[in-house]
């Protein structure tokens, strides 16, 4: 298949990639612009004038359009600033029940906070921040010799594939608020751009067939204890609306599913939750781990420890959180100052103590000490910044925030 018909390849090997994922690199390095080049060009901390890759800028804009179209009614509401303020106040108090107790508050949260996160998650996935393995899992166009029947699994190994056999399955814990569905759909569509209709020639129809065999589809399960389903349903409708595909992130319904399931992950897990975690190629916990620890360090540690038994060998676990914010969750300190906060998960949950552990250290200790998981990407404090080019041109009416992130990606070991 001619290279020009493919989407951008996954990144060249980066520091965080594991040796097992490198086997198929040579097939993918033919394009001169790799996704990791895009990432390097975006290093505005070192060079604020560095030009952003136009394809990335364009996808950032389609992400913003997706939110603006979906919630267009909200931007005309004079009450929006007031609702945002009230959500902010409840979040400051860590009163998550009050923060999310009405549809308007959920929508206000999404347009104010989830948008920047969706931008960040798109770039983190497409740019290899979460390891080459994660990026490659999103990149589904056939990559190895055109007539081979192979595909690449999230753990980088090669497995045989038949038509329609394998879709990328991701379970997002605390993932109801819209950032994951849009950010991941954006990364998926960016890494697998539509192929022009080439079926009019014999060679073209064979190529189209090979492409269809390789394109697997994306299935998201969004687990969250708040009632986000109306939000994710609205976003799904926009993301799969063919009439908006020129301006918004777009995926065909046949290749994309997103289900929101209500679950407090610190309480006994439902069968639906268990089955979604156990079939997932990737499990994400994005800006949620800190909240879980604030609700109950003991139950959260237990939950993280249970993930090994719940997930399949080779599954990837991605945790992103606010870097350095974990001192706030030092329950010892809170108890000492008598300022224990409301968690929304029940008052008694805050009674146990974590001491002063930092989140990254705690995760590493919980997951890797018994060789159940291996770390494949690790950053204690990495800035994601809203690109200046987007700020200058997007016209998005609300603030988009930079983030200083803790990132950990683990691969589940066989045993
Ligand atoms: C800070 S928000 C992050 C949302 C989203 N993951 C993102 O990155 O933008 C935390 C999310 O975790 C959810 N959450 C908090 N505690 C939870 C629990 N015990 N079980 C399930 N979801 C929880 C909240 O409802 C909220 O959607």
UniProtKB/TrEMBL annotation:
Source domain of life is Eukaryota
Composition-biased stretches (Polar residues) = 32-42
| Ranges of biased composition (kind: Low complexity) | 13-23, 148-162
What is this protein called in UniProt? 25S rRNA (Uridine(2843)-N(3))-methyltransferase
- Origin organism lineage: Eukaryota, Fungi, Dikarya, Ascomycota, Pezizomycotina
Q: Where is this region: Disordered?
A: 1-46, 142-164, 196-216
